[in-house]
Design a protein that fits this description.
alpha/beta, Enolase-like, domain 1, TIM Barrel, eight-stranded parallel sheet, three-stranded antiparallel sheet
Amino acid sequence: MPRTVTITPRSWPMAQVFRIAHGARTEARVIEVAIQDQGAVGRAECVPYARYGESQESVAAQIEAVRGALEAGADREAVQALLPAGAARNAVDCALWDLEAKQTGTPVWQLAGLPEPRPLVTAYTIVIDEPAVMAAAAARASAYPLLKIKLGGGDDLARLAAVAQARPDARLIVDGNEGLDARTLPALLEAARDWRIEVIEQPFPAADPAALRRIAAPVAVCADESFHTSADIETIVQGYDAINIKLDKAGGLTEALKAVRMARAAGLGVMVGCMVGSSLAMAPAVLLAQLADWVDLDGPLLLAQDRDPCLSYEGPLLHPPTRAVWG
């Protein structure tokens, strides 16, 4: 039977409105790719992101444009040249990893030369809202020792104070999503000395790297929107202490593995993060996250319902994917 490629748009409703500095969403709109070959099926899911000019339609069209090459047998190395970094390549790359694992009976972590995966503690996201609402959300997330706090507005210091006071036990990641105010950031950074803030993620727009060089941060500053692939590392080291690797930005596990190794060689910290998607989108990142300092793979926890089969979460503890899920 010849190799076939199936492209399926899907939507996963959110458990609540997901509000960050870039806007708000009520559903995760994804693309699922299945590649069938020699009786095995490799699957993966990507999350098109409007911030990078992507939509379900554009990503599906990208994959459709290379269908002929994929069905003719293009492998992961060929896909790096066939598609640019982004959600489309992520879905194809990860589906090919899963396909090889299914065909050979060898798990992806072994194929990739990674350590055997173990359960990891993931961050849990507190979305932007009024300070009291964010504090209440943080209190309800008492099982999670690591919280990611979404900021980006005039009340950021009050929001952060409310969360820190509601959860003085929690380690904190502050995520500006390019929306922090340079005028109030010094006060926020000063507060970081008293609260358990470990990292501040993308405070300023990616288009304005010079703004970051004008501040002295007492905690690690992590590039998210400013960082996509290993090609960015040479620039990133000039202004950041860490990078957030997301498979949908990198264009798949193949490039993400290259990026994490280059980041370590450059002395950068590593966060492995995600867009909001189902367990199929998270599963490859769980393997990558074995090499990370911070893990932010709570996407399925933010959905009203995950796919079946799905990843296993025990509170903050994220277990590696089973064969039925991916890889």
